[in-house]
Amino acid sequence: MDYLGQLLANGLVLGAVYALTAVAFTLVYGVVRLVNFAFGELFMLGAFLTTSLMLPEVRLAGVIVPMPGFPLPVAALGAIVLTALIGVLVDRIAYRPLRNAPRLAPLITSIAVSVVLQSLAQTLWGAEELRFPEFYLATLPPVVLFDSIYLSVMDLVVMASAVIAMAGLSLFIARSSLGRAMRASAEDQTAALLVGIPVNRVVAAAFAIGSGFAALAGLLYAQTYGFAHSSMGFLPGLKALTAAVLGGIGSIPGAALGGLILGLVEALGSGYLPNGTAWKDAISFVLLVGLLYLRPQGLLGKPELNSAGRGSLLGGASEFAGGWLHTLFGRLDGGLARLAAAGPGAALAFLAIAAVLGALMPSDYWLRILTMVVIYGMLASGLNVIVGFAGLLDLGFVAFWAVGSYLTSILFVLVLKDSFGVAPDDIWWLLYLNLPLAGLLAAGFAVLLGTPTLRLRGDYLAIMTLGFGEIIRVVAINWIGLTNGPMGIRDIPAPDLFGIPLGSPRAQFFFALVLAALVVFAIARIVRSYVGRAWVAIREDEEAAEAMGVPTARYKLYAYAASGFVGGFVGVFYAHYQQYISPLNFSLFENILLLMLVVLGGLGTFLGPFIGALIWIVFLQLALDLPFVQAYPETRFALLGVVLIVLMVFRPQGLAASARVSLIMPGSRAKGAA
Amino acid sequence: MRAPTPAPLLEARRIVVRFGGLEAVGGFDMAVARGAIHGLIGPNGAGKTTVLNVLTGFIRPTAGELVFDGEEIGGLGVHGVARRGLARTFQNIRLFGVMTVLESVLVGGHLHFSASAPALLFGTRRSRGAERAMVARAHELLDFVGLGSSFADRVATTLSYGHQRRVEIARALMSAPKMLLLDEPLAGMNAVEKSEIADLVRQVRAQGIAVLLIEHDMQIVRSLCDHLTVLEYGKRLADGLPEAVLADPAVQAAYLGRAR
């Protein structure tokens, strides 16, 4: 009983933190239908700002800055207000211009904002943890309930502030005129505008309140665990989003309920399950996936939110027109469109240029970089099948990549070398067997993961696939017997062909190039047929596709399988190229990065993913030469984030908006047909 | 002794659709003969589109039977119904964005493709032949609906409204259906376009394809349809030959308002 009681108490504290952040997600989603991934980072800012305001001095970007040294309540208030302002600023810069943009654009800017905020925080406060200062309430002896349950005074403060904040918000929404305006905008923005509600101001208020809630949750979390860190917001942010979805996104009581459930389940799970603390992150996501499967709208949510608006994933235009940026993007788009329309010719020319570049490139360093471009291009191509052609936003694609990498690594290193003492050189051929094998295995996984998502649409689909990706990662970390856990797998042999080692950077580059040619060829063959037409039809109008006799559920699974196959296939090569893999290689960030590459280069094109990968990886390298970036390497990511935000705000339809590939088998339009 | 009437192509018996407590369709009966142009008319909000959605599997009826070509199609779902040979167009045109006219029409032929993934990957002669045959068929249909092959490579959604309608009809015909359901195909068209589409519908019938037509233009309905069913408040108000049905005082009252 005392153990259970203690777990319940811990769960309530954690639940309070999740609930507060979940309210932030739900409030903003309710008003603007945007999953603002940046709340995790606003949570982190709340923690850092509070900590900084409480200290006498802080080292910011290496410079010692004097600070007021406020007591916790004053510092907390200051931090909440500051974070709320930052939240409003973020909305103004990154989201407001995109109110009428295609649905993927704001999601991408919100991810970009996260990246910017996190890198800036790391630049400012450093990569180390910042210790949360002592506060006198925290030094009081704990309260003991039923002789056995210890609750620190601060735990009680956490719970009390959560309850007060929620009650205050409910009252505000129910009674105040701004609250009423918020509810009206949530129902119908256009109608709200027509009756004279200043919707922009209402949305700004939602962001301010949401950011304040996230900051409060962040500072309470930092207080409870004793530190602030630049990446501390990521997991709690995801959990809070999970909680919001659990409760039914858009519903404030739902968010509170979801947060509490998640906190309690995590506390109980880590207390009672064998090795529960290690698995607790997986528990939340299993819960999420299970619930979305059974009840897509969440516990208290409305079912109609589970429907993506019809229309293109990226169609539509920005509210900005004119200016040199506009012209520049227009030119780029025209070029990419011509490239896409050129079909096999362009692909062959591209391949030839890459081959010449690979043959002549004198520097091993740049050869490695080019190899990474090809690898990321291939992976992005795999993701492009499901996102770009079938229109299903998949944030769990890295799992398929991980399956391929782990399959070959486990076979080569853990099974054959470590258990049977077989030298990798003797079984060089296994790599070539593993390529298709891993593809099939990953395709199987993809179908398995795709099946429960078939009923979900839009943002819900993205969140569920995200849950799957995280589950796979947690499994990779914790199933040490299979994957070696966080230590990863070392000494994966480089590719070898009939005893000819292919480990040199040049050989690896050409190996990758051959695989890329295969991948693009295969994808093009499938897409330029009735299968690709069915995918695009589903992307553009699922119901109309169904009415044309397309069994849409089956074709979605085909898209998952094809995308999974590519992920697994490329994963095998990736492991042999890197020669070392660990769960860190397969994080959500990688998935988001791949998504950005596809959007950058052109969704639903064959060369777009490679162009996106080229732009991004070359950009990363060039950025390394900037003196500012050399001093603060994290700012590279901030820079990427800024570039993406600018890109999305000015060009929400993606760089290659007019690029479209033919969906008809080449040569089928020969004379006699027309 | 009368000659036995041939079994109708489509028969709906006592169809009931309830949304929550609201009864949109209450015990609706209709029979569409093979090769006929059958009009389904009724005032706005009578439930015509709901009936069409029931027939095409978009809405599962609360009760009732649906028999198409001798087979119960009630629980088949949308693509199952399409597979049995019922093709449709939409009241507000629903073409696939970014697709060309030819690609859009080819999607309509989805049912007739069967190449496996390996066959596609290796580009087998059979898979290429099937594609070529379907492309040729799509071009024929584009000519048939009066668009011609010069439109084949235009992005479908950029065409004029009237042309988009024709693309939709070609897309529906591409599945080689036994019956075509047209949901207000003449809406928003001028007199010339209307008579062109009416001619097109007659040509569809001439190919042995039955047509179920939802339409408001009574002149066209009168001249085009072989049989009429009138729907009001989710119930069948009248059924029979156009002249008789349109002369029915109850039908006239439904359209013009009842005398008190």
Automatic annotation (TrEMBL), chain B:
CDD domains the UniProt entry points to: ABC_Mj1267_LivG_branched
Gene Ontology MF annotations: ATP binding; ATP hydrolysis activity
InterPro entries per record: AAA+_ATPase (IPR003593), ABC_AA/LPS_Transport (IPR051120), ABC_transporter-like_ATP-bd (IPR003439), BCA_ABC_TP_C (IPR032823), P-loop_NTPase (IPR027417)
Name of one Pfam family that matches: BCA_ABC_TP_C
PROSITE patterns: ABC_TRANSPORTER_2 (PS50893)
Source organism superkingdom: Bacteria
UniProt entry keywords in alphabetical sequence: ATP-binding, Nucleotide-binding, Transport
Domain ABC transporter residues, every copy: 10-258
GO cellular component: plasma membrane
SUPFAM superfamilies cross-referenced by the UniProt entry: P-loop containing nucleoside triphosphate hydrolases
Record protein name field: Branched-chain amino acid transport system ATP-binding protein
Organism of this sequence: Ancylobacter tetraedralis
